[in-house]
Each structure stands twice: as C-alpha cells, then as structure tokens.
Design goal:
mainly alpha, Growth Hormone, Chain: A, 15 helices, 83% helix
C-alpha cells in the first residue's frame, strides 16, 4: 500500500488530479441514486430506468469523436475544469423536476450532463500519462480505480441515506458542489504537454487520422475495445440491479437500502480487484494481458451467480465477484493503452474507446429493460442470459490473448 501513498505524497500534480476525482466521483453517485429514485417514484417502470442509462451513455457515443479531437488540440486540464463548472449548473437544474410530466426534462438534463462528461473523460485519460512516470502508470490507474470504487461505496451509501433523510434535492445540490470543488483542484494542476504538436487540420480530418492510426495498429485497436466488450455485460447489470433491489431483495422493505448495499459491494470489489491482480501478476505487459483474461472469467462467474443467488448475502457475494472482474479489466486495459499510444493520438484513442464502450453499454442497457418489461422475463433469468454473453466475450478475448502470446507484443 505504501507505493500508492508515495505516489500521492510525492507527485503534486497527480495529487491534485486525484483529489478532483475523489470529490467528483463522490457526488456522481449521489446523482445516480437520486435520478433513479426520482424516476422510480414517478413511473416505477423498468424501461423508464433504461432510458435514464441511455441518456447517460448515448451522448458520450455521439460526442466522442469531437471530444477526442479537443483533447488532442487544447489544454486538457482547462477542458476538464470548464466541463466541471458547466456540469454543476446542469445538475442544479434537476431541482426543477417535480411531476411525471416533467420527466422529459430529467432525460434532457442528463443528456447535457453526459455530453459534458464525454469531453471530460478523454481529457482525463490523456492527461494522466503526462503527469505520471511510465513506471507508475499501473499504480496510478489502480489507485484511480480504487478511488472510483471507494467513492461508489461511500457515495452510494451516503447518497441513499441522504435521499431518505434529506430528500432528493439535497443529493442534487451536493453533486453540484462537488463539481465546483473538483474544478478548483483541476485548475491548480500545472501546465503539462498537450497533444497539439501535430499539424492541425479540420476537425473531421483529425478524427479520421485517429481512426487510421487505430486501423494500422491492431493490437491497440483490440485493446481499445476491451471495455466495450465488458460493457455488453455490465450495461445490463446497471439496469437489472434496480428491480433486483426494489422487487426481489428489498432490505426490510426498502429497495433504496438494498441498492446502496449492492453499490457499496461493487465499490469494494472494483477497488480490490486491481490490487489483488497486481499483487499476484505484477506490472508487466504480458501480466496485464493475463489479468484481463482472468477478469473476464471472474466477471462471467459473478454474473451467473447473480442469476442463481437465493438470498441477499449471496447477491452481495456475487456482486463482489463480478466487480472484481470489472475493476481489474478496466485498470489493466487502460494501463496498456496509456503506455502504448503516442501522446498526440491519446485523446482520440481514448475517445474512441469511450464511444465504443457507451454504444455497447447502451445496447445492453436497452436489452435489459425490454427483457424485463416487454418480454416479462424474471430479473434473475436475464442475469443468467447476460452470463452467456459474458462467456462468449471471455472466449473471444482468450483467443486473442493466445494469439498475442505467440508473437512479440508491440513495443511502447
């Protein structure tokens, strides 16, 4: 654990970026729980919740080509700070939603919020390798994952308690304040090299140039699709966890408390997964590829257990398992990309990765809502079907990993 403490203590710029992430992530889970609770109270429909996740995912897919070009053209920390401030204003507008007739406004504001998020995320991913030494990239990504998962656990837990004790409005106000504080920390990061050392063309041609870069480097292309493959699984889980908590395993009659427990377990699992994988497998490129293989297998097993779990403790155990897989997959795929992709292409590669992730996550999300509401399938039956998809993804990645192991891995 000392290596993580040393990174935060000794690298001032990373410490500021990390603190911004801590604060912003904490507020994000207040927002998600409040939005889901608001929709459930107004409609109670699974498809309506699916629309919430689609409103969070699809803008990222649409905006990612532009986000990648911006992240490679302009100073990344300024992009991040500006989007934080604009998201704070957007989140405060959620306070205007009072009745079911205004549900469209919730979806619209969610779209605006995640259009802005689509600009933030590639800039953050591209900025990290510029302020962290290559030898510390696994450490930084593992710490980022642990931070995200810890804030998921704490944010969802306190978000559920705040929504119950203070009301939904308090959750939205807290989220807005966290965005503003995050922007303050980001602006304190010193100026670092951007990707703008290439000849600037029209924005569209910058985007096409990024696609050519990916097409000519198949190893990087496949790595940039790893999270998208995982999203085929966890997109459905995002939707299914809500009726699982509300209808199947409410804790003492409260689905919000169950959902908070599930999110807390998810946070613990995604945080511990990369730490465990790194301890047993190490930091090398081949070790990272093996970690991704293991993560897909663990994710599949966890989802299958979610579909067959008879009690809430089993649900929590299965959630821990599948989130260990998710967190490990996320950290090691990010680390390989950050250490391999040239700085001037980094923004566009991570934007492509994020676009592919959100597209497949949207497909999976919509399928889960339709399966429960339209096809009238039991929630846990849909989990079992999702585990079949996860198994297919695992086998496809295993085939790629075996192919890569037979020839040299591309150099950094």
């Amino acid at each position: 654990m000392s290596v993580y403490v040393d990174l935060v203590r000794n690298n001032l710029e990373y410490r500021r970026l990390w603190l911004a992430r801590v604060i912003s992530n904490f507020g994000d889970w207040f927002n998600l729980l409040a939005s889901a609770a608001l929709i459930t109270s107004l409609t109670g429909a699974g498809v309506a919740v699916s629309y919430l996740f689609l409103a969070r995912f699809l803008p990222v897919f649409v905006m990612s080509p532009f986000a990648g070009v911006l992240a490679d053209r302009y100073e990344r920390r300024l992009i991040m700070a500006a989007t934080d401030v604009l998201r704070a204003v957007t989140v405060l507008c959620f306070l205007l939603i009072r009745t079911a007739d205004q549900l469209w406004l919730l979806y619209f504001l969610t779209v605006v919020q995640f259009v802005l998020s689509s600009l933030y995320t590639p800039a953050h991913s591209a900025l990290l390798p510029s302020i962290v030494a290559p030898r510390d990239l696994v450490t930084a990504n593992a710490l980022d994952s642990f931070t995200w998962s810890t804030m998921l656990a704490l944010g969802s837990l306190f978000g559920g308690l705040a929504a119950a004790a203070l009301g939904l409005a308090a959750a939205f106000v807290i989220d807005a304040l966290t965005f503003l504080l995050s922007a303050w920390f980001v602006l304190r990061i010193g100026s670092v090299p951007s990707g703008a050392d290439y000849v600037r063309r029209a924005g569209f041609f910058d985007f096409v140039d990024g696609l050519r870069y990916l097409r000519s480097r198949r190893f990087i292309l496949v790595l940039s699709l790893v999270k998208a493959a995982g999203a085929l699984v966890w997109g459905a889980i995002n939707v299914l966890e809500i009726p699982l908590a509300e209808q199947v395993f409410p804790f003492r009659g409260s689905g919000s408390v169950t959902l908070g427990i599930i999110y807390a377990a998810t946070g613990i699992g995604t945080g511990l997964g990369p730490l465990i994988a790194r301890y047993f497998l190490g930091d090398g490129r081949q070790a990272a590829l093996r970690a991704i293989t293991v993560s897909f297998a663990v994710l599949t097993a966890g989802v299958l257990l979610l579909g067959t779990a008879p009690t809430l403790p089993w649900i929590v155990t299965a959630t821990l398992m599948r989130s260990v897989g998710t967190g490990t997959l996320w950290v090691f795929s990010s680390t390989i990309l950050q250490s391999t992709v040239e700085n001037r292409y980094r923004g566009r590669v991570f934007a492509f990765e994020f676009a592919a992730l959100t597209l497949l996550q949207s497909v999976s999300t919509m399928w889960a809502g339709v399966a429960v509401d339209r096809l009238q399938l039991a929630v846990q039956s849909v989990f079992v079907l999702t585990s079949v998809v996860s198994l297919a993804v695992t086998l496809a990645w295993l085939a790629f990993q075996l192919r890569v192991s037979r020839r040299p891995v591309p150099a950094v």
